């Protein structure tokens, strides 16, 4: 434990933003908020500003690029479709504004080189049941965390937890990550009273779902499972939102991401090291050299989408990566592969594969004469087995050749999956 405590103290020093950075963020956020307030008053828009996210809760960690969530809380008299339009109006002539399309449009403003603001329109609600969009609950989340967590030690442990999850690819509820959101980590560290207790508890979770109900809003596990929508019960951990019991704050957490996280927890407990808090960069050249040395095929691809950057673009690029991987696996045995999304409109995929010796195609049953004739025309080495035709064919093409033909043949599917460019690097 002494070694672990020493490591966590070192990590905290590394992830704690400097006073200078925090002051800059605060100054930028306040200046921006004042300008928005002026415009709200100018256009007689009934709304108020509040700063949210990790900055408002004192759980922000050191980054190369900082972002602040600023919310405009609109009076309930405004219709849902109105508030994005009013937000754009309140922005005035702000430069470098990017619209992020979704159930409600919100706006990203590049304020400085390493700092941006996300301006998000929400409804002003006091009862969580009145929410029309999940972002409407954001104000309640900030209020809950600020009310419950007064201890600097717990706030520090939250920062450590965020750094651990980020380094191990488990931080973010976005659909291309399926991990822990910042809010869920804040709740978990508060519940377990520290980072080490949290990860130790996570290693003990088995196949049975773990239910955490901090405010005991449900009587028992049975009531929880009956009351929640089935779509919110798929995650390995069900963490009831203390501000709204119908919401599982870990609904986005996938079993795959949790397994990866749990493995990292077990390894850290067994052998504590700073390396668990360092982002592991993929050395593409080393992977390529290793593949060629073992006489395997290597390919690096960049895919682009026309969808809005962030969660939407990332999810489309990940979906296409998984689809492409399945197509490749029909003819090749995958030895290694990777997905890296740049946060904008493109992602890179790499595949290390070995060509299969042969593939067996299943054909029609022999009493289907018309289809049997067509199958024999299209395939060589056709044979019959248990009343059905099959074809055994050797694979005589490389991974690159396969992908070149696949791109042409599946141009329509590629377009339908919102991929507008696919290139080899």
What are the SSEs and their pairings?
Layout: H1 2-15, H2 19-42, E1 47-51, H3 53-57, E2 66-74, H4 82-91, E3 97-100, E4 106-112, E5 115-123, H5 138-148, H6 152-167, H7 182-192, H8 195-203, E6 210-212, H9 221-227, E7 237-241, E8 244-248, H10 255-270, H11 284-293, E9 297-305, H12 311-329, E10 332-341, E11 346-355, E12 358-365, H13 369-378, E13 382-385, E14 388-394, H14 399-409, H15 411-416, E15 419-424
Parallel strand pairs: 2-5, 6-7
Antiparallel strand pairs: 1-2, 3-4, 4-5, 7-8, 9-11, 9-15, 10-11, 12-14, 13-14
Helix pairs in contact: 1-6, 6-7, 7-8, 8-10
Please characterize this protein's 3D structure.
The structure is a single chain. The chain has 425 residues and is α+β, with helices and mostly antiparallel strands. 42% of the residues lie in helices and 24% in strands. It has 15 helices and 15 strands. It has helices at residues 2-15, 19-42, 53-57, 82-91, 138-148, 152-167, 182-192, 195-203, 221-227, 255-270, 284-293, 311-329, 369-378, 399-409, 411-416, and strands at residues 47-51, 66-74, 97-100, 106-112, 115-123, 210-212, 237-241, 244-248, 297-305, 332-341, 346-355, 358-365, 382-385, 388-394, 419-424. The strands form 4 sheets. A 5-stranded mixed β-sheet has the order 1-2-5-4-3. Strands 10-11-9-15 form a 4-stranded antiparallel β-sheet. A 3-stranded mixed β-sheet has the order 6-7-8, with helices on one face. The longest helix is centred in the first third of the chain and has 24 residues, at 19-42. The protein is globular, with a radius of gyration of 26 Å. 31% of the residues are buried.
């Amino acid at each position: 434990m002494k070694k672990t405590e020493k490591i966590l103290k070192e990590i905290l020093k590394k992830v704690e933003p400097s006073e200078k950075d925090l002051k800059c963020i605060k100054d930028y956020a306040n200046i921006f908020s004042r300008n928005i307030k002026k415009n709200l008053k100018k256009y007689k828009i009934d709304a108020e500003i509040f700063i949210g996210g990790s900055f408002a809760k004192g759980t922000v960690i050191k980054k190369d690029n900082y972002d602040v969530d600023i919310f405009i809380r609109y009076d309930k008299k405004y219709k849902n479709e109105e508030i994005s339009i009013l937000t754009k109006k309140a922005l005035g002539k702000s430069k470098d504004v990017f619209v992020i399309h979704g159930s409600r449009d919100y706006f990203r403003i590049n304020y400085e080189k390493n700092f941006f603001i996300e301006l998000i329109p929400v409804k002003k609600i006091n009862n969580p049941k009145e929410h029309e969009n999940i972002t409407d609950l954001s104000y309640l989340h900030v209020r809950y965390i600020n009310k419950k967590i007064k201890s600097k030690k717990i706030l520090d442990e939250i920062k450590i937890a965020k750094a651990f999850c980020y380094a191990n690819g488990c931080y973010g509820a976005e659909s291309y990550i399926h991990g822990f959101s910042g809010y869920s980590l804040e709740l978990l560290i508060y519940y377990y009273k520290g980072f080490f207790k949290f990860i130790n508890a996570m290693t003990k979770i088995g196949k049975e779902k773990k239910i955490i109900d901090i405010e005991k809003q449900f009587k028992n596990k049975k009531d929880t499972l009956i009351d929640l929508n089935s779509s919110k019960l798929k995650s390995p951990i069900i963490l009831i939102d203390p501000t709204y019991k119908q919401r599982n704050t870990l609904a986005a957490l996938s079993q795959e991401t949790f397994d990866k996280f749990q493995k990292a927890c077990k390894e850290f407990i067994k052998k504590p090291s700073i390396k668990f808090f360092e982002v592991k960069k993929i050395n593409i050249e080393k992977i390529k050299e290793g593949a060629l040395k073992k006489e395997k095929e290597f390919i690096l691809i960049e895919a682009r989408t026309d969808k809005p950057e962030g969660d939407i673009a990332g999810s489309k690029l990940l979906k296409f990566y998984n689809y492409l991987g399945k197509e490749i696996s029909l003819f090749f045995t995958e030895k290694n592969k990777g997905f890296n999304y740049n946060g904008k409109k493109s992602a890179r995929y790499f595949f290390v594969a070995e060509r299969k010796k042969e593939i067996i195609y299943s054909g029609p049953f022999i009493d289907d004469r018309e289809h049997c004739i067509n199958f024999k025309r299209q395939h060589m080495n056709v044979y019959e087995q248990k009343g059905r035709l099959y074809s055994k064919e050797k694979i005589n093409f490389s991974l690159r050749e396969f992908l070149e033909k696949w791109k042409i043949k599946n141009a329509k599917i590629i377009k339908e999956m919102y991929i507008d460019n696919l290139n080899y690097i």
